[in-house]
Amino acid sequence: MKRLIQKILCAAPLFFLLSSCDKGFEEMNVDPNKYSEVIPEYMFTRALLDGVSTNFTGAAYLTIGQSMQHFATYKEVPAAGDKYFNFSYSTGNWNAYAGTGAGQGAIVSIRQVIDAVSTNPASVNKLSAARIWKAYVFHRLTDLYGDIPYFEAGKALSDKNYGPKYDTQQAIYADLLKELEQSIAAFDATKATFGSADLMFGGDVVKWKKFAYSLMLRLGMRLTEVDAATAKTWVEKAIAGGVILEDADRAVIAYVDGSQTASRNFIANGLLSTDYITPGGDNVEGGKFAKTLIDYLKNTKDPRLNVISIVWTSADGKTFTADTTTALQSGMPNAAYNNLPANFNTFSEPNPNTLLKYSAPLIVFGNAETNLLLAEASVRGWASGTTAATAYANAVRAGMRQWSLFGTGGAISEAKVNAYLALNPYKTGGTVAQQMEQIQTQKWVSLFLEDEYEIFANWRRTGYPVLTPTNYPGNLTGGKIPTRFVVPDSEETYNKTNFIEARTRQGGTNTLSSVVWWDK
């Protein structure tokens, strides 16, 4: 499976050739360096990799990671989320619609896979997996941008549609949930799958169903503030269908520390190549862990602190050691500096023995999140068979166990997990608001770095964890934490009519302070 990652990244991104003339000139028009047809397996692998890695540094790290106060920076240029500057970082995810670089073109790739397998009844499992992955990629895009091209998106090659209309997020969500339900029902255990081209499940149909139901649970819960009745329907349907609960069913993509940059874990590669390059001293983008995150982990005596965080120590100022000692860990306040602070080297940053390993895995969807969603469903009265307290404890245990995937540096003993739960018991007797705060704040910790996009969406939906905004001079939001990504200016140039219609429909603005439909 790991070798396949390297193989697919070497393949040509486009698999179409121009039509030939006639009179035997066909061979003259054939490019020997390109395939003459779509290879669904290759394209599906590419769509998986591109779907998770789009614009990580600009979006998940600098914009969301800082605004959700996991990271901080003293510099102004990369302070999209720290000081609410530089909206351009948030435009990069639009590249999921098209492009040839790493993390770009996920929509085009998955559309091509769907087109290639949709007419063959024997490929029903491939089609279902592709439709589910399309839903995954699109839910991220619409959660970031609101109304976006959906029904007509990714059809520039197939239909020559270069100006797709924007669909409402409400209509998109309805179709995403429909796509998940239909895809689950269409799976046939007797038919072929993507096999080793499927980097998450190796073609396991049962696991794909659990992944789809888990995504349905996430999307259903997203509707709680705009349509509680519909939210309840889909949440109950997802729980009844069966979501990811066991470690063995987690959706995980493995990466390799190979010679090709694109075969490495894109999070580790992004952080190492853009910020945390040299131990000790300054960092390229001025980044460190945020005070909000480190203080919370220390105050709750969370053993994950020693897994994710280090401080560089040195006896001679030349040779540095990554020190995980709890007492040394200290977060940098958000928007507190505009020059290198004298104590910069005392602040915590990512652990090179876990987070910054090129071979680190990516947990696309884990059982920590599903159990926290079950806990919320229980509080709302939408889940039977489990209590919120049980689901919460299961989530904490799963969230700590998952770090063992990162090697010995990530292993957390059961004794430490038990001690954490004893110190931080679930607030069974608390108010609904108190229970929600505990559940959603735990999600802020459990999904740290692996899915900053979901943390951002969940914070906008629930308001938890409670974060204190910064108000750095000259910021772009008036001292408000960003709530939406900005659609690139190119859309107003190349798709003007549709773009303006969507912008008007969403309040007439296209800024970091705009809101999406479900954000009430």
UniProtKB/TrEMBL annotation:
A Pfam family assignment: SusD-like_2
InterPro entries cross-referenced by the UniProt entry: SusD-like_2, TPR-like_helical_dom_sf
Name of the protein in question: SusD/RagB family nutrient-binding outer membrane lipoprotein
Record keyword Lipoprotein present: yes
Gene3D superfamilies, per database record: 1.25.40.390
Domain of life of the native organism: Bacteria
Keywords tagged on the record: Lipoprotein
Keyword field contains Transcription: no
